[in-house]
Amino acid sequence: MNGQFNLFAAFWLLGGPALALGAAVWVGAEHGFGLAALTFAAILVAWFLLRELLGIAVDVLYRFFPLRPTCRNGRCQAFDYQWVRFGESTVTWRCGCGTEYRQEGAMFSEVDAEGRVRPYMRKHWGRWRPVSRDESR
Ligand SMILES: [Zn+2]
């Protein structure tokens, strides 16, 4: 975990309540407790709605532009893959069926039991397309 991620996670979790509290204190000093409480509640509700909407937006985005293709058995989707290791310019994933895949840039290749790498899918404009025979080495 790097510092940037932690900062983002902290903001994601506490940004809304912190903002609501700050605004409530500011409003409270001018207009009293009632309006301060209302401000606090309103910002908190807006914050949770925004988080919910962002979550849905990310879900939709990942459905249409998945990070990883469906596995060769057709059973595993992008989030069914487990990270195995990082290579120099590659990331190795294992799908729910136990098959290993190697991702290198836009290329997603299957790694068989003997360690042979076979190109499987290539990302094109955010969508995965099967690699045709003549493209594979
Ligand atoms: Zn699978």
Percentage of β-strand residues: 15-25%
Number of helical elements: 2
Overall geometry comes to elongated
N-to-C series of helices and strands: HHEEEEEE
- What is the helix content? 40-55%
**Rounded mean pLDDT score:** 89
Question: How does the helix and strand content classify structurally?
Answer: alpha+beta
Ligand inventory reads:
zinc ion
- What spatial order of strands do you see in the largest sheet? 1-2-3-4-5-6
What's the domain count? 2
Radius of gyration: 23 Å
Strand elements, count:
6
Oligomeric organization of the protein chains: single chain
Biggest sheet character? 6 strands, antiparallel
Low-confidence stretches: none
Question: Secondary-structure map with pairings?
Answer:
Blueprint: H1 3-31, H2 33-64, E1 82-86, E2 91-94, E3 100-104, E4 107-111, E5 117-124, E6 127-130
Antiparallel strand pairs: 1-2, 2-3, 3-4, 4-5, 5-6
Residues 71, 73, 75-76, 95-97, 99 line the site of zinc ion (ZN).
Give structural notes.
The chain has 137 residues and is α+β, with helices and mostly antiparallel strands. It folds into two domains: 3-64; 78-135, no CATH class. Helix content is 45%, strand content 23%. The protein has two helices and six strands; from the N terminus they run ααββββββ. The protein has helices at residues 3-31, 33-64, and strands at residues 82-86, 91-94, 100-104, 107-111, 117-124, 127-130. A six-stranded antiparallel beta sheet has the order 1-2-3-4-5-6, with no helix packed on it. The chain binds zinc ion. Zinc ion (ZN) binds next to loops.
